[in-house]
Design goal:
Blueprint lengths: L2 H20 L7 E5 L5 H10 L3 E4 L2 H14 L5 E4 L8 H5 L4 E5 L2 H13 L4 E6 L13 H12 L4 E7 L8 H20 L10 E3 L6 H7 L3 E4 L1 H4 L6
Parallel strand pairs: 1-2, 1-8, 2-3, 3-4, 4-5, 5-6, 6-7
The structure holds pyridoxal-5'-phosphate.
Length: 236
């Protein structure tokens, strides 16, 4: 078994235990493999291990690796975009992904919606929320999240699947937990808002290698995992 396959098994164990603690079914937590800086052969290894969702951060890197991965992995999987997305990169990214998790402004949502309509398809999107209010983080403010989700969900060509956040970057687990609990609360508010297209926005993408147990306890339906699957990233 190669190291990625072994790490995949360890990760599955972590998710199972985290679910056990709070009485959740592990089948309700998807894994997105965060593949930034990984070469195609390592990405194929994580698909071979069992991953079915890949998360990409950069448009150029996505364009570089996606064709090679597709060519050597015939099975089903999804590419999601999880990084900061400039509007001039929308068309490049749309060629490769079924979902953009980092929608944080209406200009971007509109551009994605028009591109999807032009291609005769529906693009899955998540709204990114800055749940920790750290100034360096992307995402809409929690206070604005429900109204913004309504605006995004109203756009033809997009299907709002849920919310995404990068949790608080803090050694204090209480602070991290609070940021994830804000997200769970917002998710419920979005679905209860009655705004068209929001009732099905059930996904909650949160939790990374270092804090996925906390996110699962708070209700994550998708954890985004890089280093726990691939080892420490080396700068390319
Ligand atoms: C890299 C990345 C992750 C995974 O982080 P790890 O700590 O390596 O698990 C998750 N989400 C986003 C948006 C990322 O850029």
């Amino acid at each position: 078994m190669d190291d990625v396959a072994e790490r995949w098994q360890l990760l599955a164990g972590r998710i199972e235990r985290a679910c056990g603690v709070v009485g959740r079914d592990p089948a309700t937590v998807d894994v997105l493999a965060a593949v930034k800086t990984q070469p195609p052969d390592r990405i194929v290894a994580v698909l071979a291990a069992g991953a079915r969702i890949l998360g990409h951060n950069r448009a150029q890197e996505l364009a570089d690796v996606a064709p090679a991965v597709r060519a050597s992995w015939p099975g089903p999987f999804e590419n999601h975009f999880i990084g900061a997305l400039q509007t001039n990169k929308v068309n490049q990214v749309m060629r490769h992904v079924s979902c953009v998790q980092s929608v944080d402004r209406l200009e971007l949502a509109g551009k994605l919606a028009r591109a999807a309509m032009r291609d005769g398809r529906v693009l899955d999107v998540f709204v990114e929320v800055n749940s920790s209010a750290e100034p360096t983080k992307a995402g809409v403010r929690p206070h604005d999240a429900v109204a913004f989700c309504g605006e995004v969900a109203a756009l033809e060509g997009l299907r709002l699947r849920g919310l995404m956040t990068v949790g608080a970057n803090s050694p204090d687990q209480g602070v991290v937990r609070a940021s994830y609990e804000v997200m769970a609360q917002l998710s419920a508010e979005v679905r209860a808002s009655g705004l068209p297209g929001t009732a099905e926005a059930t996904e909650l993408s949160m939790g990374m290698s270092g804090d996925l147990e906390i996110a699962i306890a708070a209700g994550a339906t998708m954890v985004r995992v890089g280093t726990a699957l691939f080892g420490p990233r080396t700068v390319r």
